[in-house]
Design a protein that fits this description.
The chain is of the alpha/beta class. The chain has helices at 2-8, 44-55, 68-76, 90-95, 121-126, 141-147, 162-170, 181-191, 219-244; strands at 11-13, 21-26, 35-36, 41-42, 59-64, 82-86, 97-98, 103-111, 131-133, 156-158, 176-180, 197-212.
């Protein structure tokens, strides 16, 4: 397994000296959830996932993929065992077993066009505003339906890097980006995009899960992971707080 992973990805983070290793597929850096160090990945999702798996008796190999979409592809092939930070969708349910939820995610719009604050998502699309999103990411049923309408497709631009999405917005190449609330606030504070504001419209508010590969994990292993999540809930708030200070 790990031989194939080394050929597929640029980095494999963490070394495990036991047999209970699982491959955790991650995409591009997404602070404060995924932050890449020289030989280690940290951040809210990395720390939570590592702790959950450790309590369940596993050692996590974080495998950096070119994009979240590529992680899904390798997951379907049985090469990746787990994908963290997953929101639920009917398509994903067909290819994965979802764990118990381990945190919540609020997807928001970020923009320089504050005069649109009174408009809903459908009204923004109707006005032909341009949106940048992360390829392979799920932003809720409403956004999926609007994204799949033929008239809206020319106005959606898929960009892998969250930093690049913010730069495009700052340069007025797009009008809106759809981003996790905490991640958006983190990048605004760190990089001082002073003209970019969070739009009041809530795109999606959803539970976040681990996607578990039933081709590589058996029922007892999945049960251990879910039990670990139940006993790990009290630590989540402290991990989130650590990265937002």
């Amino acid at each position: 397994m790990m031989f194939w992973l080394m050929g597929l990805a640029g980095n494999v983070f963490a070394s495990c000296d036991n047999q209970n290793t699982v491959s955790v597929g991650i995409g591009t850096e997404w602070a404060p959830y995924l932050i890449f160090k020289e030989d280690r990945v940290v951040g809210i999702d990395a720390d939570i996932t590592r702790n959950i798996l450790k309590r369940a008796g596993f050692c996590a190999h974080f495998v950096k993929m070119p994009s979240y979409k590529r992680s899904i592809i390798q997951f379907e092939k049985g090469i990746i065992d787990i994908i963290p930070a997953a929101s639920f969708s009917e398509h994903r349910q067909k290819i994965a077993r979802f764990s118990l939820p381990y945190r919540h995610e609020r997807m928001r719009l970020f923009t320089k066009k504050t005069t649109t604050n009174h408009l809903s998502l459908s009204e923004l699309f109707a006005a032909n505003h341009r949106f940048s999103v992360n390829p392979g990411a799920y932003y809720g049923l409403e956004f999926e339906q609007l994204k799949n309408m033929a008239d809206n497709r020319p106005y959606i631009f898929e960009i892998k890097s969250v930093m690049q999405r913010f730069k495009l917005l700052n340069l007025d190449r797009v009008d809106f980006i759809v981003e996790d609330e905490l991640a958006g606030q983190y990048y605004l504070a760190k990089h001082q995009f002073n003209d970019i504001k969070m739009h009041p419209y809530m795109v999606n508010n959803d539970a976040i899960y681990l996607m578990l590969n039933e081709r590589t994990l058996n029922n007892k292993e999945i049960e251990r992971i879910n039990k670990s999540i139940l006993h790990h809930q009290f630590e989540v708030a402290s991990i989130v707080k650590k990265y937002l200070q």
